[in-house]
Amino acid sequence: MTTFRPDAVPGQAPPGDSVAPRDSTPDAPTSVSRLNDTIHGFVERWGSVWVEGEITSWNERSGNVYGRIKDLAVDSALSFRLWSSTLRRLPDDLKVGDHVIACVKADYYARGGDFSFTVSAMRHMGLGDQLEKLERMRATLRAEGLFDAARKKPIPFLPHCIGLITGELSDAERDVHRNAELRWPQVRFRTIHAAVQGDRCVPETIAALKILDADPEVDVIVIARGGGDPQTLLGFSDERMLRAVAAASTPVVSAIGHENDHPLLDDVADLRASTPTDAAKRIVPDVAEQRALVAQLRARLTSRLTQRVNHDIAQLEQLRSRPSLRTPESILTSREHEVLMATARGRDLVERGLDAGSRRTAELRAALRALSPGATLARGYAIALVDGDVIVRDATQAPAGSQLVVTVGRGSLAALSEGEIGEAGDPAAPN
């Protein structure tokens, strides 16, 4: 005989007898409706229970939601339904992948034999505590300077090799590759796949970051994921990952989610991209735009050079058109008469100066001759010198026997003094 016991229900003591009719035997089986009613009554006694898990299915039909919640630790799940009246009281951002707690009540539909759970309340699991913890960490890292713009490394203009850390076969990987290669076909990637959520996210991402940071060919590293709710993005706010990114010598780009997703990695990374597509566009230049820019710069350079050459030609023509350069001899012609007049005036002044000088010289020469001892000597006078340079002015200066030098009008002669003579010319009598 088959029996049903509520032993597995916590908090309920097992009844002594089966809830199914005792007389159900192969010869006298019970009816389906009676069995379903028995199961329904049994399930009704369970009441409501809070469960924790991850939403894996969320389908809306006619205002109601039908979905599934999966256990985070083991492969076990339950189906639930959520009436529209209850849905209006729940948060608007509930979706697949959310870590939630839900108040569910088991319900067994006796007529159809269907078993399900009706949700009366649901909310994100511990999100408030996690957000508070993240804010404390944000304040700590900001105080340490990990968010400072001064420490952020510049992204190279044209990276030859891009390191990419993302989930395997993910849309984020395809978006980065496709958009980067469309912009610059020669760009190369070194991609390392890592878990982008869950317990493996942080250690695998850090390990991939260290490998790419040690590769000298990698110019920039992109950490990419296609968005998600705050719960699934918690790994990208883990302190271990943030400090590893801050310590990396290679520039790191955070491309975790969409515009509204903002893990702490966005603040620590050297560049924050709103999406993986945005990351590809911001780190790889557009070859078409660069070619257009080069053509524009060449056109501007040609225009500037043409303008400069034309300007210099115009200035040269203007200088050449001036009279002084067109007929330079006109300047000499206009000054020729002035030069001739100045020359004649100068010659006249020099000649008059020479004549006046000649007359003055003659006058001075005549005056000098009149005063010159030579003129006196020429008239018959003589100068007697004793002892070589003493002029004899008194006969006593040249006693008898003195050697004299007598200068006359023309020449000099030696003489021997015989002493003073009288007035008649005789020698004076001795004293």
Automatic annotation (TrEMBL):
Keyword rRNA-binding among UniProt keywords: no
Q: List the transmembrane segments.
A: none
Query: What are the alphabetically sorted keywords of the record?
Result: Cytoplasm, Exonuclease, Hydrolase, Nuclease
Query: What domain of life?
Result: Bacteria
Q: Where is this region: Disordered?
A: 1-33
Q: Which residues form the OB-fold nucleic acid binding domain?
A: 31-123
Q: Per the database entry, which stretches of residues form a coiled coil?
A: none
Q: Does the keyword Plastid apply?
A: no
InterPro entries xrefs: Exonuc_VII_L, Exonuc_VII_lsu_C, OB-fold_nuc-bd_dom
Which segments constitute the Exonuclease VII large subunit C-terminal domain? 146-364
What family is this? Belongs to the XseA family.
Q: What does this protein do?
A: Bidirectionally degrades single-stranded DNA into large acid-insoluble oligonucleotides, which are then degraded further into small acid-soluble oligonucleotides.
Q: What name does the UniProt record give this protein?
A: Exodeoxyribonuclease 7 large subunit
| Source species | Microbacterium candidum
Which gene name does the record give? xseA
